[in-house]
């Protein structure tokens, strides 16, 4: 099927919700591919299907129709175990609604992915605290969600997404609850990790953030209406190799080839 | 082992939801404590009764007249068991397996001492009564052969009678009047400490001749005074049945019963008494077990309720855990161990409470019932409560693991 060099490959993806008699087409034939190391912003009106798309990319949801492949492997052919491992090791997901565990201290929340990655408890606590420090919450490690502000909760969710050093970060409005300065700090962290090789996909309503991305995908009513990386939306919808022809909206930083361990050590 | 990894997670989860955890545990605690206590009381009660019966000897036989089956006096005892029968049964030549034969004629009558009086069951009997019924004395002695032969005006009384009449128990030598006749107290029985079965605290014993000739207006049958019952001792526990047959033979012969006639007396042995009591206590245990079952169900429903209420939260939690990389087995193990920790903890507390009650009961002097907690009750109580916890604890987990993570996360 699709070019196996792409990190994410979607062909004619639809997601339909049956609401009694009527059908809601959350996604309506989306074709898209994202290369390793890209920095993508997804924008669009509320209800246009951005979160639905991202849930499918993050292996949290399955499409009603279409073919979805991650690293050249069809999602439909993956076992539950393999998907869980991919979610655990490769993908960091920042939920639009944070999704924190009730009555659980921040550092425990951040530690969760490490538990399922079989990291020893002593090491995982240390790494959880480091991740919290990255998002400026070192002081709040023992606070429970109900003792944190909305923005702090969002940053706990971000720390949790980053703690297991994913290669793909999917962030659904990661700065939605943050003030300009904190938002800027989080974006700077993301971009730093991106420079070190992290593939970044961010849903945002913020024009400024969208402009920082190297590729902007605009959605409306479950379809992609524009993609700044024009070469990626050919008739077939499948790009053949990385097209250097597309002009990036901002000067694109050079992705330094580094192994994952090193890249996170730097942070 | 990898399994141990889940214990901290389960404990964290319990600690993060103390309310839910304690409510679940409460169900288990109530279930376990109620079952153990209820069944313990039942067991204790029957063990007490059986002990009491056994302590009165297992070689004893009691002969009593049958009850009239028809006519005017239906229900009243047949008046054919007499002192003549007692003498006949005492003949060791024909009754090699019987050692002591003790007649009894008893009735309820007023005892008077000074300005005090008391309605008491007074039994006329012989000296061997104390031996056959294993009476122990607190003061003085039991009736002697001499006193029986001379039909002396002497009486042995229980402690309750002594305290009611004299406000003390050292009353040997005091005088008690029955129907105007003075009787000298020669002994006071040891308090049985048991208000229930087989207690003699509220009785008096006088020579059988005095009872027959002066105190009670006793009818005769074929010229002999009748008795209300006869006690006998078999030579050994093994010979009880043989003794029973010898008694039956002699009495049928003496009462002139034909081959088709039913016995006009009944012989009960301690063994048959134990059987009867066994039946009664089984019924009691069954009744208590049903009550216990109800409390288990109530406890179980409590557990179920709280588990079901927490389903939404748990479904979301499972969605999140799966989203973060948990395998289905991770989730199930976590929930299994969480339920296990909760139910075992609750079970232990329940057991501790019922054992605490048992200890408390033992400290109450003269409390008639011990609390006996059997292993089977323990297993039953903990088993049922734990299954409730497991089943209803695993239910949300099983359901949520089948969903896509995002569906579980959205679950309301
Ligand atoms: N579980 C569901 N059942 C039914 N309809 C759904 C469900 N989830 C999403 N939808 C519908 O699918 C459409 C796309 O939803 P989605 O959450 O992807 O939008 P979005 O672009 O992320 O919006 P926003 O910017 O507000 O987050 C919406 O019309 C929504 O009502
Ligand atoms: Mg959304």
UniProtKB/TrEMBL annotation, chain B:
<dbReference type="InterPro" id="IPR025857">
    <property type="entry name" value="MacB_PCD"/>
</dbReference>
<comment type="similarity">
    <text>Belongs to the ABC-4 integral membrane protein family.</text>
</comment>
<feature type="domain" description="ABC3 transporter permease C-terminal">
    <location>
        <begin position="290"/>
        <end position="405"/>
    </location>
</feature>
<protein>
    <submittedName>
        <fullName>FtsX-like permease family protein</fullName>
    </submittedName>
</protein>
<dbReference type="Pfam" id="PF02687">
    <property type="entry name" value="FtsX"/>
</dbReference>
<keyword id="KW-1133">Transmembrane helix</keyword>
<feature type="transmembrane region" description="Helical">
    <location>
        <begin position="286"/>
        <end position="311"/>
    </location>
</feature>
<dbReference type="InterPro" id="IPR050250">
    <property type="entry name" value="Macrolide_Exporter_MacB"/>
</dbReference>
<feature type="domain" description="MacB-like periplasmic core">
    <location>
        <begin position="23"/>
        <end position="249"/>
    </location>
</feature>
<feature type="transmembrane region" description="Helical">
    <location>
        <begin position="377"/>
        <end position="398"/>
    </location>
</feature>
<keyword id="KW-0472">Membrane</keyword>
<dbReference type="GO" id="GO:0005886">
    <property type="term" value="C:plasma membrane"/>
</dbReference>
<dbReference type="InterPro" id="IPR003838">
    <property type="entry name" value="ABC3_permease_C"/>
</dbReference>
<dbReference type="Pfam" id="PF12704">
    <property type="entry name" value="MacB_PCD"/>
</dbReference>
<feature type="transmembrane region" description="Helical">
    <location>
        <begin position="21"/>
        <end position="42"/>
    </location>
</feature>
<keyword id="KW-1003">Cell membrane</keyword>
<dbReference type="GO" id="GO:0022857">
    <property type="term" value="F:transmembrane transporter activity"/>
</dbReference>
<keyword id="KW-0812">Transmembrane</keyword>
<feature type="transmembrane region" description="Helical">
    <location>
        <begin position="331"/>
        <end position="357"/>
    </location>
</feature>
């Amino acid at each position: 099927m699709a070019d196996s060099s792409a990190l994410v490959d979607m062909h004619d993806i639809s997601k339909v919700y049956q609401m009694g008699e009527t059908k809601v087409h959350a996604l309506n034939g989306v074709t898209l591919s994202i290369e390793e190391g890209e920095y993508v912003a997804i924008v669009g009106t509320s209800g246009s299907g951005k979160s639905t798309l991202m849930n499918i990319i993050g292996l949290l949801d399955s499409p009603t129709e279409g073919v979805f492949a991650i690293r050249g492997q069809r999602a439909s052919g993956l076992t539950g175990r393999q998907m869980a491992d991919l979610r655990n090791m490769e993908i960091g997901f920042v939920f639009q609604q944070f999704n924190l565990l009730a009555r659980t201290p921040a550092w425990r929340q951040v530690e969760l992915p490490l538990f399922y990655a079989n990291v020893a408890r002593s090491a995982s606590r240390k790494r959880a605290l480091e991740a919290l420090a990255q998002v400026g919450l070192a002081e709040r490690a023992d606070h429970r969600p109900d003792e944190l502000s909305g923005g702090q909760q969002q940053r706990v969710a971000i720390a949790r997404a980053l703690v297991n050093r994913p290669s793909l970060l999917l962030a659904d409005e990661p700065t939605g609850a943050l003030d300009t300065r904190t938002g800027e700090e989080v974006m700077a962290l993301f971009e730093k990790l991106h420079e070190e090789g992290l593939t970044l996909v961010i849903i945002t309503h913020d024009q400024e953030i969208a402009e920082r991305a190297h590729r902007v995908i605009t959605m409306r009513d479950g379809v992609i209406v524009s993609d700044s990386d024009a070469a990626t939306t050919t008739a077939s919808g499948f790009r053949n190799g990385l097209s250097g022809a597309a002009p990036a909206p901002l000067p694109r930083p050079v992705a330094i080839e580094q192994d994952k361990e090193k890249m996170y050590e730097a942070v | 082992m990898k399994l141990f990894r889940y214990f901290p997670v389960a404990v964290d989860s319990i600690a993060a939801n103390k309310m839910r955890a304690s409510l679940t545990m409460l169900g288990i605690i109530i279930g376990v404590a109620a079952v153990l206590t209820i069944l313990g009381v039942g067991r204790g009660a029957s063990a007490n009764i059986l002990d009491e019966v056994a302590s009165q000897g297992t070689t004893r036989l009691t002969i009593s007249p049958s009850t009239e089956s028809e006519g005017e006096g239906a229900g009243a005892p047949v008046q054919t068991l007499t002192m003549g029968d007692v003498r006949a049964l005492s003949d060791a030549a024909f009754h090699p397996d019987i050692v002591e034969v003790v007649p009894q004629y008893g009735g309820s009558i007023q005892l008077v001492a000074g300005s005090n009086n008391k309605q008491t069951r007074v039994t006329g009997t012989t000296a061997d009564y104390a031996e056959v019924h294993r009476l122990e004395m607190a003061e003085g002695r039991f009736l002697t052969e001499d006193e029986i032969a001379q039909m002396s005006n002497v009486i042995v009384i229980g402690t309750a009678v002594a305290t009611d009449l004299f406000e003390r128990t050292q009353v040997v030598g005091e005088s008690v009047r029955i129907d105007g006749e003075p009787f000298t107290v020669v002994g006071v029985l040891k308090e049985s400490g048991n208000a229930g079965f087989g207690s003699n605290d509220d009785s008096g014993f006088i020579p059988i001749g005095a009872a027959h000739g002066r105190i009670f207006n006793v009818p005769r049958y074929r010229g002999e005074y009748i008795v209300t019952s006869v006690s006998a001792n078999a030579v050994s526990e093994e010979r009880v049945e043989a003794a029973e047959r010898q008694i039956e033979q002699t009495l049928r012969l003496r009462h002139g019963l034909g081959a088709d006639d039913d016995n006009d007396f009944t012989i009960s042995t301690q063994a048959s008494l134990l059987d009867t009591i066994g039946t009664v206590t089984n019924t009691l245990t069954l009744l208590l077990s049903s009550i216990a079952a109800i409390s288990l169900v109530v406890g179980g429903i409590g557990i179920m309720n709280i588990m079901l209420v927490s389903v939404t939260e748990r479904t979301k939690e499972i969605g999140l855990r799966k989203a973060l990389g948990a395998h289905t087995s991770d989730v199930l193990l976590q929930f299994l161990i969480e339920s296990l920790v909760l139910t075992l903890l609750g079970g232990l507390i329940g057991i501790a409470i019922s054992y605490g009650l048992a200890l408390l009961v033992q400290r109450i002097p003269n409390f008639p019932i011990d609390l006996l907690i059997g292993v089977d009750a323990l297993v039953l109580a903990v088993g049922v409560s734990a299954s409730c916890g497991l089943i209803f604890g695993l239910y949300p987990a099983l359901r949520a693991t089948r969903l896509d993570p995002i569906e579980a996360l959205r679950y309301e």
